[in-house]
Amino acid sequence: MSKVLDIRDLHLSFRGYTGVTEVLHGISLNIRAGERVALVGESGSGKSVTARIVLGLLQELRTARISGDLFFEERDLSALSRREWQGLRGTSMSMIFQDPTSSLNPVFTIGTQFVEVLRRRDPKLSDAAALERAGELLHSVSITDHERVLSSFPFQLSGGMNQRVVIAMALANHPSLLIADEPGTALDVTVQAQTLQLMHDMVAQANTAVLFISHNLGVVREFADRVYVIYRGRIVEHGSTDAVFHDPGHAYTRALMAAIPKLTGGGVPEIAEVDDAFFAPMVDHGGQE
């Protein structure tokens, strides 16, 4: 099975007034078709900037310094022009952001925004055909009153409804790669579980590769096939989800698991000190390469 996304030795730094800040230190990961891979770490560890590099967004910043190899469906992304990279976004690659409401344009109806998304793949698509297709996609994410939703503005819908809309939009053009950056963080637990299950089912049907970015290990355990643990811009552990959760080899991974809230027992979990393990070699549980 070929690799949809292959990142090798990715480095990122930002040039500022006081010097250069190193953010990523040789990130390497890969995802195959139909595979759900999680990138796990605390806020500021480098998860979201990795996703934005894949989408070609940080390359547009003059202050960003990026090196390493990025391959998407065996194409060297660094060799693409800015226009070619933009052409991949919303078609072959798509992204679900953390807050579904803020990721939608508040001044346009859901229907208008859906038409624009579908025209990314087929510019000649008529309004009527696009709205009909949008209705079908909304029905696939369990929105039965699609006519009302398509005529609504994002602020007129609940967070859970907007999340379903965003998932439908992200998968509308049958992307090869879906990047989900903390999806459901802004939602309550029950709605989050429902939307993640919908996303799971839809990507399985389309054989879409998923890069799932999260700090929520409980969600990751249920959703992902493989896990990469990132700490201060370095991958410190990698393997199948079962292997990483059954026998975490790195102190930082164990600290993340200790931080999962417990329903019984009371008290605050003790977090292991991880600074001494920062420069330790990556723990690899035999994941696919």
Can you offer a commentary on this structure?
The termini are close together. It is globular and about 55 Å long. α3 crosses α4 (127-140) and α4 (127-140) packs across α6 (159-170). Helices cover 34% and strands 26% of the residues. The strands form 2 sheets. Strands 6-7-8-3-9-10-11 form a 7-stranded mixed sheet, with helices on both faces. Strands 2-1-4-5 form a 4-stranded antiparallel sheet, covered by helices on one side. It is an alpha/beta fold and 289 residues long.
Question: Which structural class best describes the helix and strand composition?
Answer: alpha/beta
Shape: globular
End-to-end distance:
11 Å
The spatial strand order of the largest sheet comes to: 6-7-8-3-9-10-11
Characteristic terms for this protein:
289 residues; alpha/beta; seven-stranded mixed β-sheet; 11 strands; globular
Secondary-structure topology with pairs:
Layout: E1 3-16, E2 19-32, E3 36-40, H1 47-54, E4 64-72, E5 75-76, H2 82-88, E6 93-96, H3 110-121, H4 127-140, H5 146-150, H6 159-170, E7 177-181, H7 189-206, E8 209-214, H8 217-223, E9 226-231, E10 234-240, H9 241-246, H10 251-258, E11 283-284
Parallel strand pairs: 3-8, 3-9, 6-7, 7-8, 10-11
Antiparallel strand pairs: 1-2, 1-4, 4-5, 9-10
Helix pairs in contact: 3-4, 4-6, 6-7
